[in-house]
């Protein structure tokens, strides 16, 4: 969604961009649900979800440095202007705005 938005804007621009657009990707992730019986008012409900786990792809390369770009509690990027990852953090903040705008305020991706 975001890269389509960017590509469309670039195709309409009269001048080339004065900066490079980062190319990021998501790790593979899924939701694992644990089902079981739950007791509610002395009645057992079969098939109730009692635990949920976020399962993420492992990153095996020990040389990769993981940077937290944006905190869940704030939209302000964490890396400072002179820190590694600053440009990517600014780009990720921008992508949140695009996602929010393109979905009519229904969602944005954080973390």
3D structure, described in words:
The structure is a single chain. The protein is of the alpha+beta class. 25% of the residues lie in helices and 23% in strands. It has a two-stranded antiparallel sheet with strand order 1-2. A hairpin with a 2-residue loop joins strand 1 and strand 2. The radius of gyration is 20 Å and the shape is elongated. The model has no long low-confidence stretch (mean pLDDT 83).
A few lines on this structure:
With 111 residues, the chain is α+β, with helices and mostly antiparallel strands.
How far apart the termini lie comes to: 17 Å
Q: Supply the number of helical segments.
A: 2
Principal-axis shape equals: elongated
Range of strand content: 15-25%
Order of helices and strands: HEEH
- Please summarize the sheet with the most strands: 2 strands, antiparallel
Spatial strand arrangement across the major sheet: 1-2
Uncertain parts: none
Instruction: Give helix % range.
Output: 25-40%
- CA radius of gyration is 20 Å
Q: What structural class should be given to the helix and strand makeup? A: alpha+beta
List how many beta strands DSSP finds: 2
Rounded mean pLDDT is 83
């Amino acid at each position: 969604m975001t890269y389509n938005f960017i590509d469309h804007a670039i195709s309409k621009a009269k001048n080339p961009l004065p900066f490079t657009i980062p190319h990021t990707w998501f790790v593979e992730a899924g939701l694992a649900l644990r089902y079981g019986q739950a007791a509610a008012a002395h009645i057992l409900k079969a098939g109730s979800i009692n635990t949920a786990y976020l399962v993420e792809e492992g990153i095996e390369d020990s040389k990769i440095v993981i940077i937290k770009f944006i905190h869940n509690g704030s939209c302000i990027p964490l890396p400072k202007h002179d820190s590694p990852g600053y440009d990517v953090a600014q780009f990720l903040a921008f992508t949140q705005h695009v996602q929010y705008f393109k979905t009519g305020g229904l969602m944005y991706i954080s973390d």
